[in-house]
Amino acid sequence: MKKFLVMDVGGTFIKVAVMKEDAEILAEERVATPASGDGGIFRVIREIFHQQKELYPDIAGVALSIPGAVDVESGYVSYAGSVMDIIGVKMKEELADLGVPVEVENDANCAALAEKWKGNAQDCHNFLCVTIGTGIGGAIFSRNEIVHGVAGMAGEFGLMMLDTHADIPELLDQRNFSRYSSTWNMVDRLNKHFDEERTGEEWFELYDQQNAEVMEIIHSFYDRLSIGIINLMHIFAPEKIVIGGGISSRPELIPYVKKQIAKVPTAIAAKIDIEECKQKNKAGLIGALHHFQKMNNG
């Protein structure tokens, strides 16, 4: 069975795994994402490849999951969030010196592919994946394929504007779905409200202790998230929406969103299922591998 080197590149860490073609993980590690500048990300990718190639000489390809917009045919990255070094680079061409095929796909698209292949969307022909973290990511899976759109920008749900009290550039940058509904925004609001610095996990400990003020702010975050999901629900009318990101494991999140959706007096509201992503923090790796296979096996 063939082996592949798979990397899920994030703003803070790169998740690395050597995987069989059935997604069995043979080895995995986590490496710090280098600071932007001087192409450090490519140096690290090459170092990881050569280290793993010594241990697994039969590595047959490299699969990458990255933030932002990518042309999957050329590997050209037009937008990449905080991983600045890959913007404007044709990654498949840049990494051709590795001597094995390289494939690149957006991280939210990888999450959707993981759910379709081995997760909670296996029976769906049309579904959406919404990922919640530092920002809001998204993927559109329609007629059994990821929809990439022009410049690979389809599914950038986080750029959806949810306000009208500013001009368009400010709305797009500061008052979009990501700014209102990301976990980063929620933690920032809590820190400012209470004038103290806590992590998301620490705020949720207070939520679980029934702290009324904390619950009110977190529920307002859930409300904004629900509004965005209701918008997406009516634009795409998917069979299912799967929600990923660390916060998706919160036991009250999915029921809360479903309760808000139930208030919508339209025919499709009761027909669309909402579920947590099954693959959780392995979704990027599994989806990147599946994308590699689709690109190389037809």
The total of beta strands comes to: 12
**DSSP strand content:** 15-25%
User: Judging by the overall fold, what is the CATH architecture of the largest domain?
Assistant: 2-Layer Sandwich
Across the major sheet, the strand order is: 3-2-1-4-7
CATH topology of the largest domain: Nucleotidyltransferase, domain 5
How many helical stretches?
Answer: 10
What portion of residues is helical?
Answer: 25-40%
Report the CATH C-level class of the largest domain.
Alpha Beta
**How many structural domains can be distinguished in the coordinates?**
2
Looking at CATH, the homologous superfamily of the largest domain is ATPase, nucleotide binding domain
pLDDT averaged residue by residue: 92
Termini separation? 18 Å
Q: Shape, please?
A: globular
* Alpha-carbon Rg, integer: 19 Å
Order of helices and strands: EEEHEEEHEHEEEHHHHHEHEH
Query: Can you summarize the main beta sheet?
Result: 5 strands, mixed
pLDDT < 50 stretches:
none
- Indicate the structural class: alpha/beta
Assembly of the depicted chains: single chain
